[in-house]
Amino acid sequence: MADYIGFHRRIYRDEFYSLIGLASYTANIGFGIATVAVGVILTFTRIFDAVTDPLLAFVYDKVNTRFGKVRILLVSGWAIMVFALLMMFNWAAGKGHGVVTFVVLYVIYIIGYTLYNMTSQTLSPLITNEPKQRPLVGVFVTIFNYVIPIALNVIYFMSLMPKYGGYNLEFLASACWIAVGFSAVGIVLVCIGISAFDKPENFVGTTAKKEKLKLKDMIDVLKNNRPLQCYIASGASDKIAQQVASQSIIGTMLGGIIIGDISISTMLTTISIIPSIIFAFIGAKYAGKHGSKKTIVTWTYMCIYVTGAMILFFVFLHMGGNTRAISTAMPLMIVYVVLTLAQNATKMCVTTGNTAFMADVIDYELDRGGKYIPAVVSGVYSLIDKLVSSVSALIATGAVTLIGYRETMPQPTDELTGGVFWMTMVLMFGFPLIGWVITLIAMRFCSLNKDEMVEVQKRIADKKAAAKQAIIEEALK
Amino acid sequence: MANEKKTGQSEIGGVQYRRASLWQIILVSTGAFIGMSFIP
Fold this sequence. Notes:
Oligomer: heterodimer
CATH superfamily of the largest domain in chain A: MFS general substrate transporter like domains
Strand content of chain A: under 5%
CATH topology of the largest domain in chain A: Growth Hormone, Chain: A
Helix content of chain B: 25-40%
Low-confidence stretches of chain A: 1-15
Largest interface: A-B, 51 and 30 residues
Distance between the termini of chain B: 41 Å
Number of helices of chain A: 19
Shape of chain A: globular
Low-confidence stretches of chain B: 1-5
Structural class of chain A: mainly alpha
């Protein structure tokens, strides 16, 4: 049983399912870079990472080949990533190269992954604009997002780790080849799935004349696309709140110090997979019927209600003087488990609504500005999202210093003080509540509901037909 | 009510939509293989 819990703790807490999660190991073992320096390098490259997102929108706009647009971009991004990672984990690791080589390879990796990632975010609006089908795309991504990390961690920690006996060059090289293999299967399947839609007619605007993307177009989108502004306000506030709450020190304070058994949160993460997937389907069904905006608003209210109940539950127990009874008294444990699962489920429905809403915003921009610029919309959102979420670790660590953790980090065996309790409540539940309230306020200023989206699609179809007619008439003159 | 026109298209309330088959949606979603393997 201990091994089972330990295994799942590795899966969900260490987040080594992504190969890049092992970058600090290869930097240290393969390139001889000190641990402190690795942290500095990874932090600075994140800033570079945020800036590259909107810049890649220009590349997206320019690429048009007879083999399509998105397949070329996806395969190019993937190939650049694979090259950089194979160098970092295999071909250049342990060969006497130092910090310069590592930084260059890491920057190449970021360029590749930004190219891939930005393009992949444009696939959902590309394959369908049907209101009932659009939310379904995010559901299957959710399922794979749960399954792939489990598969990768089984291979990494139950096969490779015992074979090589720890984090060494051989382990890192093998893990890299496994990840490359997984991703190679993914890139082939994605290209097959998207091939029917990767055609020039799906990337044209609603006007007869073709114009190149300019920086002022990007500024114009940010300045005048009201649904995007609302989406950024809602998405960024949610993201920062969720990321603060998901910091491992906050998890340690809740699970270890307040509840008294940190393994409960690990168990909950595991058993919440199936309900989360079920609610992803429910969220998609709801979004198909009521539209993305209403899905976000309705399920955000649900998140607020469930989290409010969770706060009351903890405060009630704290006032009674024994929050640790959750880990020993079965009825209290059941209430905690049900509330946690309900929290995950309601958040999943908001996520499903958000994914579909991004696609709606892209189509809204096509109607508003006349240009099909999905990478601009997703790039601008991604830039702001990364900038705000980069401060989440700072907020969490800054907050715990206020309650006395200046030299050390919170440990599960620490004494439960009033400061620890209330700070955990604020960070774990208070911040997300603020994020959801901002979402509700932002959505009040957004008119892009289900009925408006039908009108948007009608106008796009009419404008495209008119543009096509104008081109034909021009050719006949 | 969704009215199937031809593969890749549907019509709801007089508006024509672009739509994908279920297998295309699933294959496109396998992009998560790359996301989960490589992307932080």
